[in-house]
């Protein structure tokens, strides 16, 4: 079996895999591995033989990944019978790697088109994460600080949320501009961001 240590990584990060091999038969096997999309270490780190009923595991890496891919590994085991005929068995497994994609949409609307002088301005703020990773959020709205303090600090992948906020005692017309940014820190420490 082949599993990705982290299925979602940032572009340029390494893809790390764990590979486990088990023999289920009653003969020792000579092993040959094929891993066309993996780095050489995914083959070179593999054992060349395995005893009957035994299992082993190892790790390998594909370096500096810049695109999504499905990494297939194939293990061929062979043994020679007493009559010198060669028998082989084969097993395959794959692990998918996906690059982190970030996207953030922020929308702010006024609950009422007009506000009487001295009244409070009530706002609705909607946040949508269009990416495939959870985001740590930073919302900036200096003209309506309540819209900053009421904002969530995280937003799950492919999800949305909304909240209400207000500016108290409005005495003059003004434009309230809200901006937001979201960041994802990959397991290897690479920062991916989105803003609106």
Name some characteristics of this structure.
196 residues; mainly beta; five-stranded mixed sheet; 2 helices; 15 strands; 51% strand
If you had to describe this structure to a student in words, what would you say it looks like?
The protein has 196 residues and is mainly beta. It has 2 helices and 15 strands. It has helices spanning 41-44, 145-149; strands at residues 2-4, 8-9, 15-22, 29-34, 49-50, 55-62, 69-80, 86-99, 104-110, 121-129, 135-140, 154-155, 159-167, 179-185, 191-195. The strands form 4 sheets. A 5-stranded mixed beta sheet has the order 2-8-7-4-5, with no helix packed on it. The longest helix is centred in the C-terminal third of the chain and has 5 residues, at 145-149. The mean pLDDT is 92.
Blueprint of the fold:
Elements: E1 2-4, E2 8-9, E3 15-22, E4 29-34, H1 41-44, E5 49-50, E6 55-62, E7 69-80, E8 86-99, E9 104-110, E10 121-129, E11 135-140, H2 145-149, E12 154-155, E13 159-167, E14 179-185, E15 191-195
Parallel strand pairs: 2-8
Antiparallel strand pairs: 1-3, 3-6, 4-5, 4-7, 7-8, 9-10, 10-13, 11-12, 11-14, 14-15
């Amino acid at each position: 079996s082949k599993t990705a240590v982290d299925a979602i990584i940032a572009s340029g990060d390494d893809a790390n895999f764990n590979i486990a091999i088990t023999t289920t038969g009653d003969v020792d096997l000579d092993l040959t591995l094929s891993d066309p999309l993996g780095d050489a270490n995914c083959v070179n780190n593999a054992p060349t033989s395995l005893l009957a009923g035994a299992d082993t595991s190892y790790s390998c890496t594909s370096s500096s990944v810049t695109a999504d891919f499905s990494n297939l590994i194939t293990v061929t085991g062979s043994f020679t019978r007493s009559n010198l005929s060669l028998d082989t068995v084969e097993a395959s497994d794959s692990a998918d790697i996906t690059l982190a994609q970030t996207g953030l949409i922020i929308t702010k609307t006024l609950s009422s088109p007009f506000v009487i002088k001295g009244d409070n301005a009530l706002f609705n703020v909607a946040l949508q994460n269009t990416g495939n990773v959870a985001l740590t959020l930073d919302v900036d709205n200096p003209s309506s600080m309540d819209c900053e303090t009421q904002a969530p600090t995280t937003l799950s992948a492919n999800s949305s949320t909304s909240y209400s906020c207000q500016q108290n005692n409005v005495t003059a017309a003004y434009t309230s501009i809200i901006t937001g940014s979201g960041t994802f820190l990959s397991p290897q420490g690479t920062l991916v961001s989105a803003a609106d």
